[in-house]
Design a protein that fits this description.
single chain, mainly beta, 11 strands, 115 residues, 54% strand
Length: 115
């Protein structure tokens, strides 16, 4: 069964850090692209970060310099390290993998930045 499962979300104070994980099962994504998106309450989903199969990364302007996307192909996992978190980072974070024309999505993990 093809599946993406995110984990690592939770409640964190402003300025804090979290590390999200996205574990893939049912397929090998080493040649695929990994993405993180987020959706805040009442807002449309927005792209956050991208990592190519070769390890090249790119970030949305709102998170550049604070978030780091990485991948471990041996573990079939994509990560999102989030530092210097702000109130505006509160959202459900979703993992997306695109591989051979197929588009896989996880159900998301909630990140709540609150004091």
């Amino acid at each position: 069964q093809v599946q993406l499962v995110e984990s690592g979300g939770g409640l964190v104070q402003p300025g804090g850090s979290l590390r999200l994980s996205c574990a893939a099962s049912g397929f090998t994504f080493s040649s695929g692209y990994g993405y993180w998106y987020r959706q805040a309450p009442g807002k449309p989903r927005e792209w956050v970060a991208l990592i190519t199969s070769g390890g090249t990364t790119n970030y949305a302007g709102a998170v550049k310099g604070r978030f780091t996307i990485s991948r471990d192909n041996a573990k079939n996992t994509v990560y999102l390290q989030m530092d210097s978190l702000k109130f505006d980072d509160t959202a459900v974070y979703h993992c997306n993998v695109v591989l051979n024309g197929n588009d896989y999505w996880g159900k998301g993990t909630l990140v709540n930045v609150s004091s």
